[in-house]
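Weekly puzzle thread! Below is a chain. First person to post its structure in token form gets bragging rights.
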Amino acid sequence: MLRSHRPWCPHYCRPLQICGQQFGSQSLFIHIPACQKKWLAVEATKPPRERRPLPPMPPEIAAGKLPSGGKAMDDFNQAMAE
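Winning reply:
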């Protein structure tokens, strides 16, 4: 389950599927490398059979183009929360 450390975050914030934190569009892209590095470090401490691969990036993030406003943003945020 995703969590938000910013319950006050307005509608334009987007959650990252790895950690569940919410970020603005530019902050999200800045945070991704640090979050991936942390994920891999945590998984490396687990026994090999319990390690999980890094979750794949959604196509919108991989392409570097996030939806901006309206239903597209609502759909994107909902997909990230699942």
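Puzzle host: Confirmed. Bonus trivia for everyone else. The radius of gyration is 13 Å.
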